[in-house]
Amino acid sequence: MAPEFSLHVLVIGLRDRPGAVHSVAEVFSGRGLQMEAFFGTAGSQSPDDSAQALILFRAAAERADFVARVLRRLPAVLSVELLAPDDASLVHSVLVATPVSAGEGVSLATLSPGVALAAGTPAAMQAWLAGTAPRRLGALRLERAG
Amino acid sequence: MDISVIGASGGCGREVVTRLVADGVLGRRELLQLVGGNPASSRPCYLHGLRADLQDACAENIPELDVTDNPDDIIGDVVVMAAGATFPTDARQVGSLKSRDDLARANVALFEQFAAAVARNRRGHPPLVIVLSNPVELGVEIFSRHLGRENVIGMGAFSDSQRFRWEIASQLGLSRQRVHASMAGEHGLGMVPLWSTVRIHGLRGEELAATVARLRGGLALAGFHSRLRSEHAALIAGMMADPVNGPVRALDHIATLPPDLRVALKPFAVHYSQAKTISATANATVDLVKALCEGRAVEVCVQYRHEGESGLVGPVGNRVILEGNVRRVVPADDLTDEELALLRACGEQCQRKIGEWIHGA
């Protein structure tokens, strides 16, 4: 069985222009890397008018670092941060069916009868989802707080 | 695939960059990195201007172009090393030229700086480094020490082999594609013509042997280097005596010599004509990069640091199989004993020189 590489999160500041996301995606696809999650916003959708992409992916640490270095050289990219999945500024969230019990580092907020929002760092959420196996009502979202 | 060209503002580096873009070697989302070879350059804006000019010229299909002067920013899967000091091109200075030793000592620190930077950031996944700068054997040695020898090749023998193929082909009225031949050894007066490797499309057996004998014009391998040295000395003297028209006269004379001598001597005359050998070197480099980008396994004659293969030691031009990086050295069983002995002697001489250059720097 192939080893499972560790999770990484890239927080990428982008130039707010067409094709920027394409450039970023090419760095991954050209290296055979799969994004486990991609969340992108144009400037008009962000609180500070900046275009941003958050990418969750698995890779060996050295490879992840190299991907970050390549991304930094792209004309469409303004900034790149490579974060660990337990970085406290990252919020991974998903709607789940209740009743369900919270796990370590995972917060639950009831939104309506039978529906709660679970949130935590990607590391905490991955562990909770694997262990508790709640019924998910949507796809996971990834954001950076602050 | 991403490509970094170190020394992209130099004559050869710029030509390589221009050809890579104009030939569409890279896709629109692949990265071509223009790396300045001299952080203290008097033209710090040059590469930014070159990038804008290339975008204007080739907007239909242009890769991402990145500019940096920082060796730590190098991210190419293939790194072309074209930076470094070179000989002046003015034939009036031909008599007061810096020696190859001076050139080597001038470039040791530069090779070391870039090799260390690439190794520092890419230890686990080193790129393939193609050394164009001279002395190419020195560049191959230093980059090999940092990145592993299988990841470093020198273009000198590849360019010389391309020239060798052309000199044979042109004499027979053929196109270069129909001739295969390798020029090994040192990129300079220590080159070794491997006549045993000559293959001419449509010729076999006795017909091939007779054609090769005719091409060689009676110049045996045993006499090749002494004849080359005397021709080289005469060529330099001629260009010193007449710096304006000397290079053209030299080219005229060189055209009367056998192909192996033409390969070794013509670049000197071309260089001092002030045209330099930029186009041939860049074309050979881009050809090789294309093969790498297409993932093809190719047999090429390049400078490679040997560790005993075919009895060779050190960075010397020889045939290798390239598939992403150097997979293996081509066995020398088709070479004559004389060719192999000359190659071994050349390798030992290169080793000695490199030791002096590195320790004398």
TrEMBL record, chain A:
- What InterPro entries is this protein classified in? ACT-like_dom_sf (IPR045865)
Record's SUPFAM superfamilies?
ACT-like
The protein, known as: ACT domain-containing protein
UniProtKB/TrEMBL annotation, chain B:
Instruction: Respond yes or no to whether keyword Oxidoreductase is given for this record.
Output: yes
UniProt domain Lactate/malate dehydrogenase N-terminal: residue ranges: 3-146
InterPro entries from the UniProt entry: L-lactate/malate_DH, Lactate/malate_DH_N, Lactate_DH/Glyco_Ohase_4_C, NAD(P)-bd_dom_sf
Instruction: Tell me which domain of life the UniProt entry assigns to the organism this sequence originates from.
Output: Bacteria
Xref: Gene3D superfamilies: Lactate dehydrogenase/glycoside hydrolase, family 4, C-terminal (3.90.110.10), NAD(P)-binding Rossmann-like Domain (3.40.50.720)
Name of the protein this chain belongs to? Lactate/malate dehydrogenase N-terminal domain-containing protein
Species this protein is from = Uliginosibacterium paludis
**Role:** Catalyzes the reversible oxidation of malate to oxaloacetate.
Q: Does the keyword Oxidoreductase apply?
A: yes
Keywords in alphabetical order, please: NAD, Oxidoreductase
Q: What is the lineage of its organism?
A: Bacteria, Pseudomonadati, Pseudomonadota, Betaproteobacteria, Rhodocyclales
